[in-house]
Every structure is written in C-alpha cells, then in structure tokens.
Amino acid sequence: MAETQDPVFQIQRVYLKEASLEQPNSPAILLEQEQPAVDIQLAVEATPAADGIFEVSVTATVTTKIKEKTVFLVEARQAGIFEIRNLTPEQMDPIIGIACPQIVYPYLRANVSDLITRAGFPPVHLAEINFQAMYEQQQAQRREQAAEPSRIITTA
Q: How many CA atoms lie within 13 A of 20 on its CB side?
C-alpha cells in the first residue's frame, strides 16, 4: 500500500541577495532642477538549491535620468529559500511563479525605497505587482513561441 505524502510549502529564509547604487554624474546632476524620468524593470528567477529546496528571487532595476544623464541607478535582488515538496508540476509552477515572488516582493520594495532614501533622494516606491497576471502572461508567451513554426533561413 503506497503512502501519500502531504504537500509541503515552507519559507526557510528571506534575504537581500544583492544591492547596488550608482550615481555616475554626481555631484553636477544633483544641481539640475528638472524632474528625472524613472524607469523600473522587474525580473523573477527560480533555481533549485537542493532536493525540494528552491531559491526564488525578484530583481528590481530602478534608473532615473535627466535628459540622457543618469541621476542614479539602483539594482536590488531579494531572494527567498522555499521548501516545496510533493506537488505535481502543474501545482509547482504557479507556487514558484506566483506565491513565492508575492512573499519576497514586499521586502524588495522596502529595501529599494530605503536604499534610495539613504542615498539622499526622494523615495521611489515600487508599485504593487499582480504576480498571477505576470505569470499568466509569461505562460501565454511560451505557448505562442511553442506554436510558432521554426524558420530555416538559407542563402544561395
């Protein structure tokens, strides 16, 4: 008689994996009166760390510019170690792509805001993210790419 094992989902640790701040045009750029343009990019990454243990990280890159000159550039990666066991692949993907980033992201938001404020700039608050919508969009893109026929280009 085979024993069924209960699914396991536990947070082992949440930590700031990497953070950097650059002000390449200081101090001259700090004298500018113009409002900077802010660009925010996010990425989610998951890697197996051991059997049933995964590291899921969310990276934010915040770039502010006045005209073409960078005021500051912040990149931070917040990560979490999660124990995830006894789930089917259909259950595992949404846990790693939605639930884990939702747990890690608030820590990233706080660390990015704190780093920018400590650097002497007005805070930049990262918006709330709907990781489910983001995950579903990525899944749709993967399905589209899989459906596209391969193109072979030959030259004569």
A: 9
pLDDT of residue 82: 98
Question: Do the beta carbons of residue 42 and residue 74 sit within 8 Å?
Answer: no
pTM of the model: 0.84
Residue spans per domain, the chain:
8-145
CB proximity list for 70: less than 8 A, separation 6 or greater = 22, 23, 24, 25, 29, 63, 64
Q: What percent of the chain has a predicted confidence (pLDDT) above 70? A: 92
CATH number for region 8-145:
3.10.420.10
Instruction: Give all strands of the β-sheet with 69-85 in edge-to-edge order.
Output: 8-22, 69-85, 53-66, 37-50
